[in-house]
Structures are given as C-alpha cells and as structure tokens.
Amino acid sequence: MMTIAEIKKNILTSPVVTPVVLRPHASHRGAGQLSHHQHSQVLNMNSPNVVLPDNSHTGEKEKFRELTMDELRNFRLKKASVLVPLLLTGGELYVLLTKRSMKVRSHKGQVALPGGAFDVTCDRTDVDTALRETEEEVGLMAEKVEVIGQLTPLISAAGYLVTPIIAIIQEFKPLLNRDEVEDVFYLPLRRFLSNDRHHHSQSTSYKIPLHYFTDTVDGKEFNTWGLTALICIAMAMIVYQKQTDFVVDDDIKVTLENPTAVHDAMLSYMNEEESKVVSSKL
C-alpha cells in the first residue's frame, strides 16, 4: 500500500517529469470560467532538455539531437493539455478517465483524460489549459487538485502537441458537461501494467504502438487506447517503479529510466519533419 508521500516521490524523482509550482495571480476571467486563477510556472527555467533515444520510430539506429522544451513549443503544432488526475482511496491509486460524448467534433465516444486545446484568450500555460478544461468537462474544481508536474509531451493524430499534467486529486462529485462528456470513471493505475484484457497493434501514422485496454466498470465496458493508454502506461511505470507485463514497443526500448521513450520517438519524428520543411525553404 503506497502513501501519497511515496507516490509524489516516485513521480518527482522521475527523469521524465518536470516539477511544477503554482502561483496565484489576479483574476481576469469572466463568469463561468475558472475561479481559482492560478498561474503555473515550470521549475528549472533554463529549458530542461528532453533526451531523445538512439532508436528511431522505425527501429533504425539514428542519433537525434536533444530538444529543449522551448524548441518543442516552437513546433508548428497546435497546443493541448490533458490532466492525469490521480486519486488515492482505500489504499489503491486510481486514474480518472472520461468517455467523450458523440456531440464533440473529434474522438467521439472515445475514452480520454480530461483536457483540451490551449486557449490564447485565457490560458498562460499548459497547466492553465488542463485545469480549465477539467473543470469545464467534469466539474473538478482546482481547489481539489494538487498539480505535481508535467510529463514528456506527445503528438496526437490530429496534429496537437499534447502535454500531460500530473495531479493528485481529492474525491469530488462529478458534474458532467454532457455536450463534451458522456461518462466518467476510475481505473486502478496499476491496471496499465497488466496484460489482462489488453492487446496492441502498430500505428501507421508515427509507427508507434497502439495499446488497447478493455475494462468493465459498474456494468459498462470501456476501451482505453491510443495516447491516453500510452500516458497511463508511463504513469503506472513511474509510480510503481515496475515494468509492464507486456512489451510496450517492438523497436523502442521502454525502461523504468525512460518510460516515455515512445513519446520521445514521436517528438523526434516531428523534429525530422520540421527540419525537412525548414530545409525546403532555404
């Protein structure tokens, strides 16, 4: 049985997690928007490096240069953030997940972490985006959220640079925005280390693995896959300091020292594509 202190320690000592500190600032938001109005600042402001693997997404041996967080933000991608809400209850650590409604424009009916696109009119940081979207989608107020850090970003099939924001949350009564969310549920985080009711295939977009987890909660079946599954796998490895019961990727070595190696491969792929675009304009 893990304690909150042990969970935080494992998260904050992970080399793929950047700690975050929240600082209050004055409100400039209108009615219906966040009331806590906290400004987030990533620690280590000297642009911490994301070390890319020697293996490319195709399994070939290549040497990628290091990318700083500033360089990642300069990618010509739309920005988005998701919250990874972790709840410790009854001695078990759970992750909160949502099932998107059929009314949204993309990813209809899919399991997802709460989150969405960066809004230049009200978001200063990726943390602001994750907190705002989570409150809008499931009614989780920031007062019940303790942001700990951010995980290595990923690239979605829709062309977003997605930053996972890690947080410990308190129990709350969900208030769903039915236009965006059909359901909300919890799964034990350790579930994403298990091969039970799990399979994977290979994405044709970035040559990355697509993991599928099937779970039944309160008589309803949910399928967690794609970027959401990759984030949950990495978080489970970080928190429990254990390897998965399955191979995460056939070509890329995913270890406890680098549980986000697949994320890195996606970023390096995008870096190559960006370099091609720049070179074509020279």
Automatic annotation (TrEMBL):
It holds the Pfam family NUDIX. CDD domains: NUDIX_CoAse_Nudt7. The keyword Iron-sulfur does not apply. The chain crosses the membrane at residues 151-169, 222-240. Residues 77-209 form the Nudix hydrolase domain. It comes from the Eukaryota. Keywords: Hydrolase, Magnesium, Manganese, Membrane, Metal-binding, Transmembrane, Transmembrane helix. SUPFAM superfamilies: Nudix. GO terms for molecular function: coenzyme A diphosphatase activity; metal ion binding. Gene3D superfamilies: Nucleoside Triphosphate Pyrophosphohydrolase (3.90.79.10). GO terms for biological process: coenzyme A catabolic process. This is Uncharacterized protein LOC106152222 isoform X2. The gene is LOC106152222.
